[in-house]
């Protein structure tokens, strides 16, 4: 049976590495226990691109590899298989990591005051950094002004709440 339609495994592969990963993921779904050479042949990708995708997917526990001896050549090769049952766990782990990063960023925003010269190419500074620079932008020399980051903090709080509600609903 050939799998032609997108599923969560293929979508995750796309997010991780783009079109090359999609080709590798589809090849794995269409040919269980394929070698990297077989996948390269099926996808038209260079062997190095296939191996990069395979090792990345393997490192994220989305595929498994079994080492077997190639009877024709006599050396060991890996036979790769998609672990579709791991996709949901992978997604949940990524969501937890993203939620934790958002919480850390909100904490950082709450704990600091920020100053900027309002020039888009200049970076914003914490109060301590602004004080060390005598409230002059170290890049362009303009005066630094206090930034009202309440909108940004509200957006972070909203997204954190949304993600926590989604996690509770499961």
Mean pLDDT: 91
Q: Order of SSEs, N→C?
A: HHHHEEHEEHEH
Query: Distance between the terminal alpha carbons, to the nearest Å?
Result: 32 Å
Identify the overall geometry.
elongated
Overall number of domains: 2
Number of strands: 5
Number of distinct helices = 7
Structural class: alpha+beta
Unreliable stretches:
1-5
Q: Order of strands across the biggest sheet?
A: 4-3-5
Strand content: 5-15%
Largest sheet: 3 strands, antiparallel
Summarize the amount of helix as a percent range.
Answer: 55-70%
Radius of gyration: 24 Å
Characterization of the model:
The chain is built from seven helices and five strands, in the order H-H-H-H-E-E-H-E-E-H-E-H. The protein is α+β, with helices and mostly antiparallel strands and 170 residues long. It has two domains: 8-82, Arc Repressor Mutant, subunit A (Orthogonal Bundle); 88-169, no CATH class. The strands form two sheets. It has a three-stranded antiparallel sheet with strand order 4-3-5. The radius of gyration is 24 Å and the shape is elongated.
Main features:
alpha+beta, Arc Repressor Mutant, subunit A, 2 domains, three-stranded antiparallel β-sheet, two-stranded antiparallel sheet, elongated, disordered N terminus
Please summarize what this structure is.
With 170 residues, the protein is of the alpha+beta class.
Describe how the helices and strands are arranged.
Blueprint: H1 8-17, H2 19-30, H3 36-43, H4 47-59, E1 63-69, E2 76-82, H5 87-111, E3 114-116, E4 125-126, H6 127-132, E5 145-146, H7 150-169
Antiparallel strand pairs: 1-2, 3-4, 3-5
Helix pairs in contact: 1-2, 2-3, 3-4, 5-7
């Amino acid at each position: 049976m050939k799998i032609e339609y997108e599923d969560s495994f293929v979508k995750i592969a796309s997010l991780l590495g783009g079109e090359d990963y999609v080709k590798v993921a589809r090849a794995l779904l269409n040919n269980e226990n394929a070698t990297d050479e077989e996948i390269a042949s099926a996808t038209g990708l260079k062997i190095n691109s296939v191996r990069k995708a395979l090792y990345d997917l393997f490192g994220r526990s989305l595929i498994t590899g079994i080492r077997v001896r190639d009877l024709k050549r006599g050396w060991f090769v890996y036979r790769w298989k998609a672990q579709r049952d791991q996709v949901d766990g992978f997604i949940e782990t990524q969501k937890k990591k993203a939620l934790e990063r958002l919480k850390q960023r909100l904490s950082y925003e709450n704990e600091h005051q920020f100053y900027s010269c309002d020039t888009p190419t200049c970076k914003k500074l914490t109060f301590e950094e602004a004080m060390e620079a005598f409230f002059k932008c170290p890049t362009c020399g303009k005066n630094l002004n206090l930034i009202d980051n309440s909108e940004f903090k509200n957006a972070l709080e909203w997204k954190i709440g949304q993600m926590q509600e989604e996690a509770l609903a499961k």
